[in-house]
Structure prediction request, 432 residues.
Amino acid sequence: LGGSISRALQRMNNAPTIDEKVLGELINEIARALLQADVDFKVVADMRSNIKKIVNLDDLAAGHNKRKIIQQAVFNELCKMLDAGKPSYTPKKGKPSSGKTTTCTKYAHYYQKKGWKPALVCADTFRAGAFDQLKQNATKAKIPFYGSYMESDPVKIALEGVERFKEENCDLIIVDTSGRHKQEAALFEEMRQVYEATKPDLVIFVMDSSIGQAAFNQAQAFKQSVSVGAVIVTKMDGHAKGGGALSAVAATKSPIIFIGTGEHMDEFEVFDVKPFVSRLLGMGDWSGFMDKIQDVVPMDQQPELLQKLSEGQFTLRIMYEQFQNLLKMGPIGQVFSMIPGFSSELMPKGHEKESQAKIKRYMTMMDSMTNEELDSTNPKIMTESRMMRIARGAGRPMIEVMDMLDEYKRLAKVWGKMKGLKIPKRGDMSAL
Ligand code: GDP
Ligand code: MG
Prediction:
């Protein structure tokens, strides 16, 4: 999605003059990209008319930078689609909240770290194993939990759990509800009853980012049975299209408050509109990236890595080292897999095996390089005779050496974007 919107903006930037036709084409391309990314039709139609309203070419005097104004309008419009206009929610003490199993624990864990006293209630009596799952998660996070293997009435359990934890002075009671049922109508009815019984302060609609086109209708259906107040989008670590999130916000008129970025308890981030849209547009989310580096890279390896990044110089040796990390999928590999454009193309989901084989071939070729070649920052050093020597040494065809060097150039570009990156100190980190 980000890619095609960026390309559309790029085309507009390259147009000799900006007129109604160019603007119209841009809007059409963006609309198409959004629709392809499963954003709901109505949401796209609104975006379309809003941009047209904001960018009135006739009113723009000759001196104005039309390109910039249009770009800003597109950016703002995408931000607006994700920003339901309410401040993000901070739970009030005293009453329970609700959500879905993994997210429930992440949410509880997040607030527990901030000094809250959360508790989890499993009101999913439909799925066998639901209580066990919650129990395991909760135990791991050291969060009190309530549920039953015998009781089949979710309303009864929800109420019992909430009552118990109120008595125990828990200040954030999270009720996990069922997500599946024999019939959808029964599911919504059950949710309504649990809602009526427990009267939560906040109902969170937990949405899998890969839900696609169904997002709008599903979110709307939830909103119609219970008063949804916030959205959490999960599995943002995957390669899902971003459109569903925009639709969910539009359908529920509620803000996204957190995103889930992995299966682990800590893979949970406060949602921030601007970096999300930047990511959608392919601009990369460097601020979030910095936080991540500090979280997952061992302390002793941070200075060197950050130093290299901030210098913006990418050598074949750094590429070699990053390939090693990527293959290990160790902590640094995780970091690099998050740099937009770094590994998504190098190692697309579902093609890990082939990609790994390719990376290993590249590394074999790099093993035939001299130190001078590995440490050079000048791409011109790679003359044809050097390439031939490397190909011979590695026993691979010349074309593969050229492919490898193309990949190097692409990665060097991505890497170069981080040049001048401010290196924050540990203490500077936002509290999370
Ligand atoms: P529920 O049925 O809606 O309660 O969903 P669960 O919490 O049981 O999660 C279903 C699966 O999705 C589990 O395997 C989770 O580990 C996984 N999962 C949940 N959140 C995320 C996330 O943000 N990223 C990834 N990659 N997996 C997730
Ligand atoms: Mg569940």
